[in-house]
Amino acid sequence: MKADAAAQALLAAVAGRLGMAELSWDADGRCGLRLDDRVQLNLQLDPDGTRMWLFADLGPAAAGEIAYRDLLRADLRSAMLGGPVFGLTAHRPPRVTMTQKLDRRRMDAATLAEALLRFAEGATDRAVRLAVPAAAVHGGELLNQPRA
User: Fold this and answer.
1) Dist. CA 49–CA 1, nearest whole Å
2) In terms of CB atoms within 10 Å, which end of the chain has fewer, N or C?
């Protein structure tokens, strides 16, 4: 989906708020950015133009089944609150993904910039936790442990 002028202007305004030189949609209505050294964030416009999606590949889950159980718990809590949801790719080993739907009709530059920063913070935090091997998980909870 090609981005319309309003979507282009919104992304340009977000770049300014985040102190970035430039952000733009590609011909398919996608944009990628990196707000830190750990996680690549991707935005994509829905074909109908009313929504946009945030995606992040968090990498493989080093703790395996412990992480998958915790991801299901986190996914349910987050989905009930309208936050991001988690999934697994078909790769071997599976990679964990984080996705959030945003209503573009309710987005201005400040709201989208805040949503991107919050999503990036959550994605980075979860990527760090997912890199923890099973032997280092204390108390059987991976995603709810305090970070070192």
Assistant:
1) 8
2) C
Domain 5-136 in CATH 3.40.50.300? The answer is no
Residue 73 pLDDT exceeds 90: no
Looking at residue 136, what DSSP letter applies? G
Distances (CA, A) of 102 to 42, 55, 70, 77: 13, 11, 24, 18
Q: pLDDT tens, 14-31?
A: 888 888 888 888 988 999
- Domain residue spans of the chain: 5-136
Closest-CA residue to 122 (of 97, 94, 89, 104): 97
Tell me: cis bond preceding 93? Omega within 30 of 0 counts.
yes
β-pairing, 85-88 vs 40-45, is unpaired
Please tell me the pTM assigned to this model.
0.79
**Cα 111 from Cα 25, distance rounded (Å):** 18
